Structures are given as structure tokens and as C-alpha cells.
Amino acid sequence: MNETYYDQIDERVFEAELKNGLKLFIIPKKGFQKTFVTYTTQFGSLDNKFKPHGSDEFVTVPDGVAHFLEHKLFENDNDEEDLFTAFAEDNAQVNAFTSFDRTSYLFSATDNIERNIKRLLTMVETPYFTKETVDKEKGIIAEEIKMYQEQPAYKLMFNTLRAMYDTHPIRVDIAGSIESIYEITKDDLYLCYETFYHPSNMVLFVVGDVDVNHIYKIIEEHENQRDKEAQPQIVRDPLIEQTSVKTPNVSEAMKLQSPRLMLGFKNEPLSDEPNETFVKRDLEMTLFYEMIFGEETDFYQSLLNDELIDETFGYQFLLESTYSFSVITSATQYPDKLKALLLDEIKSNLGKLDDVEAFSLLKKQFIGEFISGLNSPEYIANQYTKLYFEGVSLFDLLDIVEGITLESVNETAQTCLNLSQVVDSRLEMK
After folding, report:
1. 20 to 30 Å CA-CA from 301: which of 14, 55, 57, 351?
2. Is 369 designated active site?
3. Is the pLDDT of residue 78 over 70?
């Protein structure tokens, strides 16, 4: 294994690519009681159009396949075995999640690490789908989708994304729609599994008080038994999207205690920039929003004192290779007034931030939270995997943050924030 030592934070990362293409990362954390393991495929809800291995033609699968697969891989052909119980009996808690760009299977454990790793690998690497089990799962996932749609924050977000985007699959619920999941067949699942669950498209991450060489050996032996060869990178749909928002205003009635407002800004994805620049711009936009909307600002306190916002107030910026957007949201009895104030505050600060002291404090706060996060194996594993797919090491973040200046924050805000492409999305009270 290749070893990289980060002297600034005293961390070692051991990395290897196995013969079948699987990327393995191990971070030893001496003295940690808990070990955290993630097994992740770069396959999310956006990946519904792609070229299968060996094919020159694009195929399209129904929305929600990635999430559907996540559910199904917790089943096998042994009706009497419950994998959740099996992990628990070996002092491990197992879980999984699907996002826009990846699906991750994970466990945390205090004991029986080797056995739990083998069980996780076997679970993910042994698909078992029949028409009967797939049809049964559709009803379960349909109920899950209905539950999501009853959550105001979730509904508001996807209403906003559907108003922002015309064709890009980010406008679709990660779990798909009730209509789309009933179109999914076992053949769709096997096709996506064989394409995206190939070791060449996956990353295994282990962090905890482990023997690096021993863990590497058991994983290598296990993977060699699969007799798979490394594959080239998967060809995915380029996901071309128009610049303008689809619908500037969208509203829906719902049973609520207070109306909700979300402003969504559709931005250019800037896909031709280096990986580190992507991450740097993401951090700079986070700092920009913190400086104008953070809880320590006079503006935030005035909104709170005037009862224009409550604890649901929040903001987010996302910059990925095929999409980019910002959202600002809160429950409010005065959505029109709040919207005007938010837009005015952004316009008056865009490219004009000059509080050096506040900026310096924010950077120090970020660095402190980052250092604190390194005490959490969950944080390390999840963030390292996420950034790996973006082409950056988690432990390079400090250097990236050090390179951020108030001037670069102003420049990035002007580059990444498109105030002419805004969506006004609301949930009204029934």
C-alpha cells in the first residue's frame, strides 16, 4: 500500500488499487474504540442514462434505480438470515444511503472488525433479485416516497429544483417517483448493478484502530476470489441543461403551522475548472453566505427580532460538474418582505465584502471544526469518500482553506451567483 503522511495534522493514509480496480483507503487511528467502514459506488440518482460495459449505445433506466438497489442489497437468497441482526450480533450497526452522485453502505463496530468487513463485502457483492422480491419492494419504497413528500423541507427543496431545472435529473426525487419505481424491473437492477457496482467504480474506506497490513490482506484475498478485471471509466450522459430557470415562481398548499419560502439561484456549473478549484469555490461560497446570513451577523439578528424568520432559516450552495445552485429558506409569515430583504442583502454585498476581522474569524472557526471532525471516524470516512470522487483528499482541505482570501470570496461570489436566474418557491398554508 502507498502511504501518505500529513504532518500538519499528524494523519497517515494508506491507499491501494486492487487488481480488479477497487480503490482501498485505510486510516489507522490508534486508541479509537470504534471502527467505521464505508463501501461506496459512484452511482446516484443522477445516473439514469449511461453506456453499459461493452456497449456503444446509451440506455436509460427509470428514476430511482440507485435507491432501489440500495434497498435490495440488504436481501439475499436466504430468507432466514436478517443482515441487520447479523451485524448487530457482531457488535456492529449497519446502514446505507443514496445521494445524487453515490450510494454508500457502511457500518460502525467496536468488535469483530474482520468478520463485519467480510459480511459487508459479501452483502454488497452478492445481488439477488427476483420479480417477486422486486415487486414487493415497490410498495415499500412507494410508502417511503409518500413519507418524504409529507416533510415540508423536503417537498420545498424538490419543488424548487423542479422549477429551476428543465431536464437535468437533479429535479427528480432521489428515490424516484411512485410512477417511476413501478417501472423498475429486475433486469434494470442487474444492468445497473453490473455497470456501477463493478470494483473499478467503487471505494472501500476503513478508519479506526486497525492493523493496516492485516486489513489489506483480508480484503485483497476476498476480492481476488471474485475473479474480476479492472474496467474503464463509465460513460454517462453529459446532462446538458439550459441556463435559464424553468419556472420563476412555484407555490403549493400544505398543512403547515407557517408558510415557507425558498429562494433558489440557478448557476453555471463551471465544469472546466480543476478539482481543487471546484472545492475552493464551494468553500468560498459557504463563507460568503456565512458572512452575510450567519447567526452572528446584524442582518440575521434583525430578521429574527422582527420575526421574519425562525429556527428553520438556512442556506446552502452546491457546485458540481453538471449543476450548481444556491438556496435560502425559512418559515415566515411575511414571505414577500423576507424575499425583498434577502435579495437586497445579497446585492449590496456581492463582490463588496470588506470585514477582514469577521472573515478571519470564520476561517479559524472552519479550521477548528475540521480539526475536531478528525476525532470522528464517521466524519473522516464519509467526507474522505465524498471528496475522493471530486478528485481531492480530505486532508488537503486545510491547504485549500489557507489559500482563500476575502478577495477570492468576493470574486467567486460574483462568478458563481447568478441573481438573474432565481426561483421563488413557496409552501402556503391550507
Report:
1. 351
2. no
3. no
